[in-house]
Design goal:
It holds the Pfam family ELFV_dehydrog_N. This protein has helices at 9-19, 24-41, 45-49, 52-56, 105-122, 142-156, 175-189, 209-227, 244-255, 278-291, 298-301, 332-340, 356-365, 372-375, 378-392, 398-420, 429-448, and strands at 61-70, 76-87, 93-99, 127-133, 165-168, 236-239, 259-265, 268-271, 306-309, 320-322, 345-347, 368-370. It is an alpha/beta fold. Bound molecules: NADPH dihydro-nicotinamide-adenine-dinucleotide phosphate and 2-oxoglutaric acid (AKG). The site of 2-oxoglutaric acid has 13 residues, from strand 3, helix 5 and helix 15.
């Protein structure tokens, strides 16, 4: 292969910024990966010559479309929908759908880029994609949500398929929304096929998928602690969010003998010094998925807890921290506070919840820090197992899937150690995840030639 001029990291990032003006989240995600991958490929001419990182940082395609629906008052509403298909070198595009007013093309491009590395880390054959809309499900009736989901799928269906692109849930998209979208896909195509994951058990869903991301993030933490001869038992944990990932992370921490002190939503956080027990977690699940209420209501139900309006939970002293709400929800100052308060481990249930500056704080303090692309990969891993079950027209039981999830998370942890151990016993899990995730995708791309 001809030797090419190597573009250095700064020049590479300048190009990314120029080609993606104003897309701050996407640029942040590429920067975080590029700084590690550049070190790894320094002496590997084949990756430079084939422009592998440049190609992964340019989505295969971004589909943008209008979603038009009617609200309960017969007003016509218009939203924008997207599907970002980032890379399908190692399998069909795979990644969730997000419904939230903060959704932009930049947010979905960062998520699809991250997903490419995350899915590679699972070891399963899945490429990276992500989709969504700026639709806000909060305050909408069930009928409105149904009509929106149907309108969204009426366009999306032509871009997806069980061997092409398999979406799932994410923020604002849970079992209810997946059901509405799957029903519409089936109606339009007249085909029952595993085109979405996160389905209910009755129509092809997998045991353990609802639990998988939150449980997986705790298993990852457990593996990091074990690597240092430690355990979750007896430790306090601060968790943000109160959705699918946060409540299941809280559940697993509790099951393992830890004490969960906080949960939050976009309004503020609750602090319960007595610990958020399983009974309280069940109450929150019902509040969020059935009543669709606010976390502040917790304090009306359980005495001894306090609500902190407009604040995030990172100032509460803890041993373990699990950001499980959204991107950039933990900044440099909050990372410093966690470190000063003696945090030992951070495991990201959310995608890119820590700002780049915050990541540097954790890195410099050498604490155990599991980045989202590794720590929260349990969800998409069980989605991959749902795809396998759908293809084979079978369903595996809870015990088998629970064991597979545990093994998958251990495997991801070990890959991070393989590429992230700095030789002194400290593991840089960011570096490990970035390099291990990159290598598999890059080697597949090299095999395909210039496509
Ligand atoms: N579901 C899954 O399987 C996976 C999810 N993830 C990631 O985990 C995170 C949470 O997802 P999930 O639990 O599924 O989503 P949910 O919609 O179930 O819950 C999201 C939670 O985060 C809060 N939140 C959302 N946006 C903001 C914001 N801008 N500021 C503060 N809080 C906010 C929500 O509060 P409110 O109700 O007030 O909006 C809610 O408590 C996301 O980063 C997602 O990408 C990663 C892997 C898989
Ligand atoms: O289960 C899936 O396919 C997607 C999960 C997801 O969106 C994520 O890992 O961020």
């Amino acid at each position: 292969m001809a030797v090419t001029d190597h573009v250095d990291l700064d020049t590479f990032m300048a190009g990314v910024k120029k080609r993606n003006p104003g897309q701050t989240e996407f640029i942040q995600a590429v920067q975080e990966v590029a700084q590690d991958v550049y070190g790894f490929i320094d002496d590997k001419e084949e990756y430079h010559a084939a422009q592998i990182l440049r190609r992964i940082a340019e989505p295969d395609r971004v589909v943008s479309f209008r979603v038009c629906w009617e609200d309960d008052n017969h007003n016509i509403r218009v939203q924008r929908g997207w599907r970002v298909q980032n890379n399908n070198a190692i399998g069909p595009y795979k990644g969730g759908i997000r419904f939230h007013p903060s959704v932009t093309e930049s947010v979905l491009k960062f998520l699809a880029f991250e997903q490419t590395f995350k899915n590679s880390l699972t070891g399963l054959p899945m490429g990276g994609g992500k989709g969504g809309s700026n639709f806000n499900p909060r305050g909408k009736s069930d009928s409105e949500v149904m009509r929106f989901c149907q309108a969204f799928m009426t366009e999306l269906y032509r871009h997806i398929g069980p061997d092409t692109d398999v979406p799932a849930g994410d923020i604002g998209v849970g079992g209810r929304e997946i059901g509405y979208m799957f029903g519409q896909y089936k109606r339009i195509t007249n085909r029952w096929e595993g085109v979405l994951t996160g389905k209910a058990i009755e129509f092809g869903g997998s045991q353990m998928r609802p639990e998988a991301t939150g449980y997986g993030a705790v298993y990852f933490l457990q593996n990091m602690l074990k690597h240092k001869g430690e355990d979750v038992e007896g430790k306090t944990a601060v968790i943000s969010g109160s959705g699918n990932v946060a409540t299941h992370a809280a559940e697993k921490i509790t099951q393992l003998g830890g004490k969960v002190l906080t949960l939050s939503d976009s309004g503020g956080f609750i602090h319960d010094p007595d610990g958020i027990t399983q009974e309280k977690i069940d109450w929150i699940k019902h509040l969020k998925t059935v009543k669709r209420g606010r976390i502040s209501e917790y304090c009306d139900e359980f005495s001894g807890a306090s609500y902190h309006e407009g604040d995030r939970p990172w100032g509460v002293k803890c041993d373990l921290a699990l950001p499980c709400a959204t991107q950039n929800e933990l900044n440099e100052d909050e990372a410093k506070t966690l470190v000063e308060n003696g945090v030992q481990g951070v495991s990201e249930g959310a995608n890119m919840p820590t700002t780049l500056e915050g990541v540097h704080v954790f890195h410099d303090a050498k604490i155990m820090y599991g980045p989202g692309k590794a720590a929260n990969a349990g969800g998409v891993a069980v989605s991959g197992l749902e795809m396998s079950q759908n293809s084979e027209r079978i369903s595996w039981n809870q015990e088998r899937l629970g064991d597979m999830l545990t093994e998958l998370m251990e495997g991801i942890h070990d890959k991070c150690v393989e590429y992230g151990d700095d030789g002194t016993g400290h593991v840089d899990y960011v570096k490990g995840a970035n390099i291990a995730g990159f290598k598999k995708v890059a080697d597949a791309m090299l095999a395909f030639g210039v496509v």
